[in-house]
């Protein structure tokens, strides 16, 4: 490792570009830095600079890096237990499943996988196998697997039999009326800055009224929109919930929670996976659940997040920059008139030691306190001032149109019931009705 | 955890059944035991029994559990570095990619994911994006994702545009002649007990002659069929190679290696994933590569595996049980006249403290030595004697028909060019030619 750590950020990026990095995902969409260690939410780059993380590592960190309870749980696992066994069952897995069934109302049983994308793929496979129905109605981002790619485009995808209804209630109502008994599940990723709990409750109620499984993709929100996600509020009943980010505090683990009869379709759905049994991330998850058990960690972190959200909004207001700042304290959006302006500001803040998420949602960890808020807000303020001083920015407004456009581009939200949308719904209904009814591929009985 | 460890195996299985276990995958296809720790290849169940693992945890373990070098690498990672950062690039990732490019001839660049299934999904997405072609020709098991489900059934799957040619050279030749310029890649999982290096070399040469990318799924073989898998022999050039099992010695990590222009299609293919950056499994992988660097670990382990293979074969021969024992020392098959007979024997051996893979390939780790071979062979011998003494078994033969049937059932091998097969090839060609040419779903540019 010595030779790599002797290189600076730009040299390391250059080396990364040769052997591993994707030009956009790994380099272009990030700030020009390679991190070699992090404690709490403070990262240290290969040149020794300290940088505060406001992305929570794409939301994967809940308590921050090197949290003692998680570290000791993982160390105990690798030193005294091991990584994987011939059996897929371990006491850690059974205990973790048991705790999750107590934590989330939807969960009678819990199964595990490694990534958010695999958890949502598992969820719809389970729903299809449990119901013998092929259609999946969905809204929002569920990952990068093949069936997940059409999340920005309302409509029917004939190959995957996935129908994207773009969070539009009119569309959902119509689709349920037309096809209720052919729908395996309705699968929605909560967008807490955009829809309130009542909205999701209405979707849940609609599904129940039509006898359709309702699934929540809480990969991001499960431990971040409040302590227990949307399902954990008790206000939004669901039959299936996927969770991942935060659960292992950065160690890769995801879970599909749900009704026993749905989870029990596991074998029929042909799901498996060697690393589903991996013990250390389960040990990490048990430690995380211990730490957050009494709710005080989330309560305190939400206070800190609320302060950050409010002070960032204040900086923008003071500078005369219109902004739409919305969402829960641990995952809030800062939307300006243009994405370019936002990116310029966040890039400038990076030069003052703060790594904001320049394209989306700001997320903090439980390692944040007043010092982190002060540092982040200070850098943000300087960045705003610098960008204003070097551009001819004239304040406009964050119009309703701008918000609607943002929702469409960020998560495929179709928020306006105009004529075009109603026509799109008709077109989707026609495409679904005309689909081939050939049977779904039957999973082989033997899982490798 | 205390309360769970106070339960015996059967009580723990019962509890698992209620909250997490799948009836077949987690319980029915395994021996009735819950493991709570393992050192080397010795597992300890929740009742304190010691059991020797001959599955290498579905092949995921290369050095055995609690290998000091891997343990210390993971401990150092979690104590001094962290789990995940805001950046997807870390010195560990760059270093690991660099080492893999030196280790496997196919690898100009390497990208990472968490599971074997995700690595093969990534591989075909890259091939399709790099070539702008839709067809994927495949043979063998690639995982549990949707496109991977038809691996036991030769033919064309219209929804996924995957063509399974069942390891049949006549079929591959014909398909390449008909559709070469529409094939994104030919993707084959080596079955080392069934086809020799020359066979794969011929497939590779055929692909090159037709200008088609050749991909090897070495998720299982990459560090187990010899030290560097099939591609590492240098005898089988490939454009893409997937590896996973053994790489992190049980810690979840997988890699897609390949030509730079193929790996560089990553963004276009819409691939991403929060945990692709996870540092501790990369630290584990670097430690594994250190340990196996000079080849002596593999050389010694192959000697031990060869002894186990030969002595198990000897036990069967001495007992008058015909057997086909084949495959490399670290992953060999023991095929009897009937699967039931094999299962009976392995189940009886389990009662003597040895956990064989009852349905497939026996796999050892580098933690094995003479004592492990003695223990395994002793238990196997007792098991054979017990099963023979309580059944009216009359030796027949492992016929060629039996081998052909096994190959079809285990990995979809179509080994005989009979009239039915030739008709199946014609039918497949017709189905491919008649497929809809609608465009592939374009991945969104923004990856979540």
From TrEMBL, chains A, B:
SUPFAM superfamilies: PLP-dependent transferases. GO terms for molecular function: pyridoxal phosphate binding; transaminase activity. Pfam families: Aminotran_3. It comes from the Bacteria. Its cofactor is pyridoxal 5'-phosphate. InterPro entries: Aminotrans_3 (IPR005814), Aminotrans_3_PPA_site (IPR049704), PyrdxlP-dep_Trfase (IPR015424), PyrdxlP-dep_Trfase_major (IPR015421), PyrdxlP-dep_Trfase_small (IPR015422). Coiled coil: none annotated. Keywords: Pyridoxal phosphate. Belongs to the class-III pyridoxal-phosphate-dependent aminotransferase family. This is Glutamate-1-semialdehyde 2,1-aminomutase. It comes from Actinokineospora terrae.
């Amino acid at each position: 490792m010595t030779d790599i750590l002797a290189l600076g950020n730009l040299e390391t990026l250059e080396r990364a570009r040769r052997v591993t990095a994707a030009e956009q995902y790994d380099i272009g969409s990030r700030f020009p830095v390679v991190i070699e260690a992090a404690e709490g939410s403070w990262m240290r780059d290969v040149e020794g600079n300290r940088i505060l993380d406001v992305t929570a590592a794409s939301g994967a960190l809940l308590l921050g890096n090197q949290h003692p309870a998680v570290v000791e749980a993982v160390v105990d696992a690798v030193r005294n237990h091991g990584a994987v066994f011939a059996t897929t069952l371990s006491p850690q897995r059974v205990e973790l499943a048991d705790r999750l069934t107590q934590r989330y109302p939807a969960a009678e049983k819990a199964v595990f996988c490694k990534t958010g994308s695999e958890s949502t793929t598992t969820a719809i496979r389970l729903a299809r196998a449990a119901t013998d129905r092929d259609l999946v109605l969905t809204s929002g981002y569920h990952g990068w697997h093949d069936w997940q790619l059409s999340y920005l485009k309302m409509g029917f995808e004939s190959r995957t039999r996935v129908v994207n209804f773009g969070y539009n209630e009119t569309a959902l109502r119509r689709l349920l009326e037309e096809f209720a008994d052919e729908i395996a599940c309705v699968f929605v990723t909560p967008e807490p800055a955009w829809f309130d709990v009542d909205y999701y409750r209405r979707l849940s109620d609609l599904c129940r009224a039509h006898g359709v499984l309702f699934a929540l993709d809480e990969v991001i929100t499960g431990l971040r929109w409040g302590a227990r996600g949307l399902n954990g509020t008790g206000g939004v009943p669901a039959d299936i919930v996927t969770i991942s980010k935060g659960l292992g505090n950065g160690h890769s683990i995801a879970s599909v929670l749900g009704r026993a009869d749905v989870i029990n379709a596991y074998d029929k759905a042909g799901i498996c996976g060697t690393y589903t049994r991996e013990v250390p991330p389960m040990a990490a998850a048990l430690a995380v659940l211990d730490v957050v058990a009494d709710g005080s960690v989330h309560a305190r972190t939400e206070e800190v997040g609320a302060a950050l959200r409010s002070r960032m909004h204040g900086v923008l207001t003071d500078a005369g920059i219109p902004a739409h700042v919305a969402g829960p304290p641990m995952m809030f959006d800062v939307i300006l008139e243009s994405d370019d302006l936002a990116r310029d500001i966040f890039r400038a803040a990076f030069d003052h030691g703060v790594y904001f998420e320049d394209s989306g949602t700001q997320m903090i960890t439980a390692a944040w306190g007043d010092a982190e808020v002060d540092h982040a807000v200070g850098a943000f303020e300087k960045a705003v001032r610098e960008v204003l001083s070097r551009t001819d920015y004239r304040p406009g407004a964050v119009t309703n149109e701008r918000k609607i456009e943002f929702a469409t581009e960020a998560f495929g939200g179709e928020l306006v019931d105009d004529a075009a949308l109603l026509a799109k719904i008709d077109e989707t209904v026609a495409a679904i009705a005309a689909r081939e009814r050939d049977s779904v591929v039957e999973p082989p009985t033997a899982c490798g």
